[in-house]
Amino acid sequence: MSDITFHPISMHQSLPEYEVGVAISTCEFPGIAQCIAIVGIRSNKMICAHISPGTTQTQMNDIFGCLKEAGGDEVKYWYLLGPTEHHFVGRSTLWMSLNDIKKTFTRKLKSKSTSYLSFQTVLAR
User: Fold this and answer.
1) By the 8 A CB rule, do 83 and 92 touch?
2) Per-residue pLDDT for 124 more than 70?
3) Of 5, 80, 89, 105, which alpha carbon lies 20 to 30 A from 63's?
């Protein structure tokens, strides 16, 4: 087990790095300079995670364990948000491309008919 924090269902979530939660209304991801935010919509809730480029394999396994526990196997649409051009540059980054992210979802979660929508964010200058 790693240092991943799981937050149970709540109206609002604020998820810094290495945290996973379930939100009914809103979810924010503070400090997303190089990170990837993951949001899956299931019924009337959002299953969310904040992934750092420094995430270890153990942490990634725990994150996907939390996503699965929150109902991630039933999600049809996953939204990937973040500055991927900054996330994918680190040599220690587990995910080097959007395709790597999709492969992780396929390996870790059951649903094979899932769609992935990616939103590139940029830092304001």
Assistant:
1) no
2) no
3) 89
